[in-house]
Amino acid sequence: MGNKQYHRVFWVVALGFVLAAALYLGLTQRPRAPAVAMTDLAGRPIVLSQLRGHTVLVDFWATSCPGCVAEMPRLVDFYRRYHPAGFELLAVAMNYDDLAQIHQFATERGLPFPVVYDSQGAVAHAFGDIKLTPTAFLIGPDGHIVEQTIGDLDFAKLRRRLDGSDSRT
């Protein structure tokens, strides 16, 4: 093999390793949750990055969304069960929702977790310009997004993760 051929083979192999490494990292590296601050309905500030060390579910919802309303009782149950172990849940109401209805909904149902009204759409934008509800993001204790769900949550899968039988969180 001549010197030119050796160099070509070397660079093709090197390029292959670089592409393989990039693909591996792209498939295994989870995106970091956005650095976003919000205020709940009670006026308390919430800074997502300050929840590191906890598993956090950020749930985008609307009072006009039948699926969102239907899954709220299960979210309440999950929060009550897992919050003592460090689970956090943020219910982010969409900017097209009515603030009075959000307050009424949260009060009537006694939602125990923070409810945020994303009046300017900044939180939805930070998470990739969310438009559809329900959409949820599960964030691991390391601050990386573990999973995004558009539509109904898989509560059995969420339970496995929170119980520690799914090692991806």
Keywords:
single chain, 169 residues, alpha/beta, Glutaredoxin, five-stranded mixed β-sheet, two-stranded antiparallel ribbon, 7 strands, globular
How would you sum up this structure, described in words?
- This protein is an alpha/beta fold and 169 residues long.
- It has two domains: 1-30; 37-163, Glutaredoxin, CATH 3.40.30.10.
- It is 40% helix and 19% strand.
- The protein is built from five helices and seven strands; from the N terminus they run αβββαβαβαββα.
- Strands 5-4-3-6-7 form a five-stranded mixed sheet, covered by helices on one side. Strands 1-2 form a two-stranded antiparallel sheet.
- The termini are far apart.
- Mean pLDDT is 87; it is low at 18-28.
Strand element count = 7
Mean pLDDT: 87
- Tally of alpha and pi helices: 5
CATH topology of the largest domain: Glutaredoxin
Cα-atom radius of gyration: 21 Å
Total domains? 2
> What's the CATH C level of the largest domain?
Alpha Beta
What is the element string, with H for helices and E for strands?
HEEEHEHEHEEH
Decide which structural class fits the backbone.
Answer: alpha/beta
What's the CATH superfamily of the largest domain, by name?
Glutaredoxin
